[in-house]
Amino acid sequence: MKPDEQDKDFPWWLLIAAGLAAWMLWSVVADDLYRQVLGTLSRGIWITVFVTLVAFFSASAIGLGLASASLSRHLILRQIARFYIEIVRGIPILVLLLYVAFVLAPALVAGWNWVTGALGLDPIRNRDFPLLWRAVLALTIGYSAFIAEVFRAGLQSVDHGQIEAAQALGLTGWQRFRHIVFPQAIRTILPPLGNDFVAMIKDSSLVSVLGVLDITQLGKLTAAGNFLYFETYNVVALIYLIMTVTLSLLLRRLEARMRSRHG
């Protein structure tokens, strides 16, 4: 089957998923137990969204810098970028969360206290570095390495002849990047970048191991308190499913619009 024929297939999977979601939503609306669980878990939605957005945009900024460094003409910058990317990509996100929370964060606090001590300022304690921000830092570090590879592949997809032509016209490096390279690279970058965003929403559930009160952590606490494991984790799964599937569909539509506009 050709790719264009596949795109025209009716999304039966989406219809089935929508039916299941509608049934689960009806169960939540019609059942007092489900409504109680949803009311408790709704407080964690904002934490999940906050952690995901802050970590994703921070990781994207760092990833773009790493991608630029890995394509630099300077050997030292390339080696530093490759070292960071390969090391971080080899560490599971859960392990990275624990390492950042209980190793890197105390080291940062100690370093900060050493600097402020030399300046005669008051020190801070480890508890002054909230677990929420340790989780954000860990996700930022972890995903920046993956996003760097996305940006690198997108930047390398641009025809080098166009860059040379822009350089011959006297455009500066920033002007070449802004007007020539990035507008073309974004079409290659957007799909995998969107996939990383969806993956980060799911991986944000791992911050529950640090006690951050996201959806998953509130679900564990709720189920431990009322022993309604079936109802609680049904709602947890439904919330994540709605967020990820909705975002995936929006990204797919944006990708199709960009492809039709430039295609």
Written overview of the protein:
- The two termini are 21 Å apart.
- The protein has helices spanning 3-7, 12-30, 32-70, 75-89, 93-118, 131-156, 160-168, 173-203, 215-226, 229-262.
- It has one domain (16-262): MetI-like fold, CATH 1.10.3720.10.
- It has 263 residues and is an all-alpha fold.
- The chain is 82% helix and 0% strand.
- The mean pLDDT is 87.
- The protein contains 10 helices and no strands.
* Residue windows where pLDDT falls under 50 for at least 5 positions: none
**Total E-strand runs:** 0
CATH topology: MetI-like fold
How many distinct helices? 10
Q: Into which percent range does the helicity of residues fall?
A: over 70%
What structural class is derived from the secondary structure elements? mainly alpha
Overall pLDDT score: 87
In the CATH hierarchy, what is the class?
Answer: Mainly Alpha
- The CATH superfamily is identified as MetI-like
Rg estimate, integer Å: 23 Å
Order of helices and strands: HHHHHHHHHH
Number of domains: 1
CATH architecture descriptor name: Orthogonal Bundle
- The shape, in one word, is flat
- Alpha-carbon distance between the termini? 21 Å
Beta content:
under 5%
Q: Sheet bearing the most strands, described?
A: none
Characteristic key phrases:
263 residues; mainly alpha; MetI-like fold; 0% strand; flat
List the helices and strands and how they pair.
Layout: H1 3-7, H2 12-30, H3 32-70, H4 75-89, H5 93-118, H6 131-156, H7 160-168, H8 173-203, H9 215-226, H10 229-262
Helix pairs in contact: 2-3, 2-10, 3-4, 3-6, 3-9, 3-10, 4-6, 5-6, 6-8, 7-8, 8-10, 9-10
